[in-house]
Amino acid sequence: MERAYRKVSPSPRGHSSAPPVPSLSLGTPGPTARRRGQIACLCALWLGGCGFLSNDPVTYTVGGQVQRLADGERVTLGNGEERIQLSADGTFTFEERHERDTTYDVFVASQPATQHCDVRNGRGTIGSDDVTNVVVECRDVLQVSWSPSRHSSVNRPGGGYIVYYSAAAGFHPEDPGVATIDVQHDAASGRTPTSTTVPGLDPGTWYFRVQASSELGRSALSAETEFLLEGTDP
Amino acid sequence: MITSVPRTALFLCLFCALDVSTALAADMQQQQPQRYAPGELIVRFVDDFPASERAARLSLLGVDAVIRIDRNGNGRVRLRKGESVAQALARFASDPAFAHAQPNFIYRAQTIVPDDPRFDQQWALRNEGQTIEAPSYVRNNPPPGAVRDIDAPSAWGLITDCSDVVVAVLDTGINYTHQDLAANMWDGRPHHGHDFVDDDEDPLPTTVNEHHGTHLAGIIGAVGGNGSGITGVCPQASLMVVRVLDQDGAGTTADVVAGIEFAVEHGASVINMSFTQTELDAALSDAIALAQEHDALVVVAAGNQGREIRATAPSFPCSFSHENLICVTALDQAYALADFANRGAAVDLGAPGTNIVSTWGGIVIDDALDTATAWSLGGRWGIDPGCDIVAGQTPVLANPENWCGPSPSYDPRANDRAWRTFPLGRTIAAEMAFSYWTQLAFGDVFSVAAVAGPGDPFAAGETLFQRASSQTGNAVLQVAACADGETCSIGFRLQSTNFLTSFGVGVWNLQLRTMTIGSDAYANRSGTSLAAAHVAGVAALVRAYSPEFSVADTRKALLEGGRHASSLEFTTASGRALDARGALDWIDAPSAPQVKVSR
Questions:
Q1: Is A174 on the interface with B (CB under 8 A)?
Q2: What is the pLDDT of residue B391?
Q3: Best residue in B41, B587, B594 to probe A by mutation, most A CBs within 10 Å?
Q4: DSSP structural state of residue B315
Q5: Between residues 77 and 106 of chain A, which touch chain B (CB distance below 8 Å)?
Q6: Measured between alpha carbons, how far is B529 from B79 in angstroms, rounded to an integer?
Q7: What's the number of CA atoms in the CB half-sphere (13 Å) around residue B217?
Q8: Shortest Cα–Cα distance, B37 to chain A (Å)
Q9: Measured distance CA(B503)–CA(B541) in Å, rounded
């Protein structure tokens, strides 16, 4: 199935998103909801009665804000079959309109090249107003690399590395709050990668350790490396 | 794939077969090898479960993500901290989103037990509490209580072929023609090495007593699985012979340094040096540093003086602190420190070093003189099976035959000969030894002769020894005639020149020793030299298994892969004993990671 893409140049941060208003709009104040019933009644003045036309339901838009998207990066958001591509922080609104009591599900269809974006408030049910509180927060992706283990079992199928990271210095893998990433031998290339990316970390100081593993067991932990991930004010 | 198995049945079977929680607890208590990876499961979603909802479902079950492991949709998940595999299996089993969940089982290579007939005497490789025959060390043979070894069969489940790793044995000559060594010799030179003692290219032993190097070579790399003799720690090896010690086991700095240089320049990455002396030797230190530059590990023996090695009482090369040197002391069959074994902070590791059965350069024939038919006895020669005159009830070859009785007297004008033909095979050197007692009349002669092949050695052979008076003593004679041919004959003669006579001649403790081409001999010896050789063999296994390992990695694998031994706790720096499988399993840690923003 083909998907509809459009590019959006978001309005500056802090301003509300206002999609194009149809020419038949009555210019009603407030949210962008258009009361098609009213339009129908206006039409009826020409056509002899409202009952001649269908009573179209009221519909609403879905949108929100993109935060911390880096210069030069692009993120593609999806909602149903619609896709919009954003290239800077600011507000966005999907074109497709939703009737009351229908659901929406905003997701990241395509991540930026060097960042990772997460959606908050992306799912819900349409109420009596436009949805404007979807937040897409983008964070820098960290690249962690290390020198390879020289043990043969690590560098063949079944071998790999475990990257541990934590906001606490001097952490142990069993400590609470320690996250892990498995990096496994890649059968296609015949190599075991010696780097990986860590997405979605909050700004702050993070600590990393790496451990080699294979079917024979695990190595000792590497020494700990500290990294300060600087944040951008939203 | 297990798609044909009903889901419920599959989960039930997993629980039945595993009794996971009980098994896990039992594993923990008994320190048995783990049967599955802790903190992990293999799971697979049902096919029609929406992809967009999978992450949320995993999150609900407390796992982050599935690492896909195959094209069937199976993936590995890491469990919550502290959650057992059994608990997690129960949660996944009750979730209809999953078609399949199981432990991440651990498969282990099978241990290998070679068919070498003397393997059951190699307690160092597999200790079953066996009694070692003809022991060279009495204590703890057999060992009381629990037994330990270097776990060689388990290591061989991973690798048996070390032939890509050249192990240089700097020692006496090595009988590289031994049937259990010949196929595992380094082929970089016509004679598999070099002789720095005699400065020639053939490092074969030169006398019948030069077995030390051959014994070490067999420990490191006797051919395994050939249905013959023993197996080395490396069943397939590449053994370089570097003769730096003479037939008495003594060598000079100059020869040892030259030997190290030869070894590393010809590709040796493990060097065994089972010799010691007590003076600081700067030239040797430089040579070991050269080996380090060539990424070669130097394995040395702690010494057999039964003392502590201290700064004020060093033992070199053990007392050197080079990072490519590992010093080894000896354990007995109960993993107690052998009573002859040196100890101290300079000693890195312990390894088996008592009652070690290994290859030997040649045979020793003890003629017990209990088979008179083997001898051609002329004139008055005879064998008295129990002569009280010497060391009590000892068989004696004598002339006259009643030499042990009262008032013996050999015949006047006698020319009596006794000889025997010995099947020796082709030898490099041969030696005979015997005890004798002569009481001869003036002018009469007792003599010994030998000839290659069968027959009377006095007819065409070489006279080796003569006595023309009354004497008693022990004789050791080089027998060149027995170093040429498959057999040789040795004989004794009593010649009387006139009518005078006397008591005669008695011969006992007759022994023929050889250094044999194609030897199939084995012997049992003890010493820290042999402990070092076990470590050198495991070092070769490690380097063959992980060819990218540096000398530092190899040394760490040996030390950190070793197992704690209480007898080594205060007698060595590591407190550990050699463990072949542990060394192979040791994985070097990655370096400290580099972190950057990915743009």
A1: yes
A2: 58
A3: B587
A4: -
A5: none
A6: 49
A7: 39
A8: 9
A9: 63
C-alpha closest to that of B61 among B43, B48, B49: B43
**B68: number of Cβ within 10 Å:** 13
User: Where do the H-state alpha helices sit in B222-294?
Assistant: 253-265, 282-293
Across the interface, whether the CB atoms of B587 and A197 are under 8 A apart is answered no
Of A14, A48, A19, A15, which is closest to residue A33 (Cα–Cα)?
A19
| Residues A181, B9: Cα–Cα separation, whole Å | 33
DSSP B319: T
- Mapped onto helix, strand or coil, the DSSP state of residue B214 is helix
Which residues from A are below 8 Å from B547, CB to CB?
152
Q: Which member of B52, B67, B585 has the closest CB to residue A182? A: B67
Q: What is the pTM of this model?
A: 0.78
- Kindly determine whether residue B81 and residue A141, on different chains, have CB atoms separated by under 8 Å: no
Task: Give residue for tokens 């403790």.
Answer: B509
Query: For residues B25 and B19, what is the distance between their CA atoms, to the nearest angstrom?
Result: 10
Contact in structure between A207 and A166 (CB atoms under 8 Å): yes
- Quote the ipTM score: 0.78
* Crossing angle (nearest 10°) for helices B20-30 and B7-18: 30
List beta partners, residue B211.
Answer: none
Question: Mean pLDDT across chain B, nearest whole number?
Answer: 89
Helix (H, G, I), strand (E, B) or coil at A128: coil
CA distance A216 to B249: 41
* Alpha helices (runs of H) in A69-225, residue ranges in sequence order: none
Cβ neighbours, 10 Å, residue B354 = 30
CB B434 within 8 A of CB B491: no
Of the candidates B233, B257, B250, which has an alpha carbon nearest to the alpha carbon of residue B167?
A: B233
* Euclidean distance between CA atoms B219 and B456, whole angstroms: 41
Please enumerate in sequence order all residues whose Cβ is within 8 A of that of B238, keeping only pairs 6 or more positions apart, or say none.
B162, B163, B164, B165, B166, B167, B184, B185, B186, B187, B221
Contact A163 B547 (CB under 8 A): no
Name which of A17-21, A163-167, B39-43, B571-575 the model is least confident about. A17-21
Flag whether residue A150 sits within 8 Å of chain B, measured between CB atoms.
yes
Distance CA B395, CA B383 (A): 7
pLDDT tens-digit readout, B61-80? 878 666 776 777 888 888 87
Other CB atoms within 10 Å distance of the CB of residue A74: 16
Output the CA torsion sign for B192, B193, B199, B205: negative
Q: Do B546 and A146 touch (CB under 8 A)?
A: no
Look up residue A12 and give its DSSP letter: P
Our measurement of the distance from residue B313's CA atom to the centroid of its chain's CA atoms, rounded to an integer in Å, reads 29
Chain B CB contacts of A218 under 8 Å are 587
Count of residues in chain B = 599
The residue to which tokens 């860590």 are assigned: A198
Structure tokens belonging to residue A160: 């790999």
Burial B449-479, CB ≥16 within 10 A → b, else e: bbbbebbbbbeebeebbebbeeeeeeeeeeb
Q: Which of A151, A182, A201 to mutate to test the interface with B (most CBs of B within 10 A)?
A: A151
The verdict on B553 touching A (C-beta cutoff 8 Å) is: yes
Q: Does residue B485 register a pLDDT over 80? A: no
**How confident is the model at residue A50, as a pLDDT?**
42
Rounded CA separation B450/B567 (Å): 52
Inter-chain residue contact B597 with A140, CB threshold 8 Å: yes
The answer to whether B83 faces chain A, any CB pair under 8 Å, is no
| Pairing verdict, β B325-331 and B462-467 | unpaired
Distance of CA B77 to the CA centre of its chain: 45
User: How far is A224 from chain B, CA to nearest CA, in Å?
Assistant: 6
Which tokens hold the place of A103?
């659901």
* Structural Rg of chain A based on CA atoms: 25
* A148 interfacial to chain B (CB closer than 8 Å): yes
